[in-house]
Amino acid sequence: MVPHAAADTPSPPSSTATSQTDTGQNPKRQQPPPPKNPVPPPPAATYVVRIPREQILRQPPPENAKKYEELRLRRNRRSCCCRCCCATFCLLFLLIVAAAIAAGVMYLVFQFKSPMYTVTRISVKGMNLTSAAPISPRFNVSVRAENPNGKVGIYYSKDSAVSVFYNGVSLGDGVLPDFYQPRTNVTVLRTTLTASDVVLDGAVKTALRGAQSKGRVPLVVNVEAPVKFKVGSVKTWELTAKVKCDVVLDVLNEKANIVSKDCDYSVRLW
């Protein structure tokens, strides 16, 4: 019968079974080939960190800490030097102002007058201009010092210097005696200027012999004397009295006379 035949006929496989079989038999899916011109990856992100200026100046990186400390110490030393120089200049300026004020007060209150100096006599020994040997001249010089002040005394210190020259050539050196010159006083100071083994070239000797033959030998006498002025019981700081005398002698021996002279003198505050 037909119904029995239909029952014996095998039924078709289910879709589920077919799907499982195909899945087990298919190979793995292949990857697509890489593109010929790959696209570069996007750039890394950049971050900007803002640090306050004060923190940068005050907190240097650790590797620069030593350099920063050296620079700071150098600036401190430079600043100290500048302050010291400024203080020194200010002090010097104040001293100059004080000296000017003191000089003005002395001039106005005590009617201060500068002491006066001149060379009164010069005698010469040892000026042998006929021999080629070195000479050892000796000059006996008298200096007249006048103190015209009626209220001021003058102290002369021992560190003075007196010298005599001919045409720039030194012929002798000496010092003045230290002493105190009272008010309204005139004192004549005598000193000896000497030199040893002075070698004069031929031109200088010839000029000296020619000056002697004419009776006019020009010499220059320089005097520098440290002095202090006494006003009442007060002494000033140490000043310098400077004297320059252009003196003309008739001969260079013990009987020399001063033919003419021109003395310039001053008292310097330093």
TrEMBL record:
Coiled coil (UniProt feature): none
Cell location: Membrane
Low complexity bias (residue ranges): 1-29
Record field: transmembrane: 80-110
GO biological process: defense response to other organism
UniProt feature, compositional bias: Pro residues: 30-44
Stretch list, region Disordered: 1-45
Record's keyword annotation contains Transmembrane helix: yes
Alphabetically ordered keywords of this record: Membrane, Transmembrane, Transmembrane helix
GO cellular component: plasma membrane
Residues in Late embryogenesis abundant protein LEA-2 subgroup domain copies: 143-245
Membrane topology, record value: Single-pass membrane protein
Protein name: Late embryogenesis abundant protein LEA-2 subgroup domain-containing protein
Native organism: Perilla frutescens var. hirtella (Perilla citriodora)
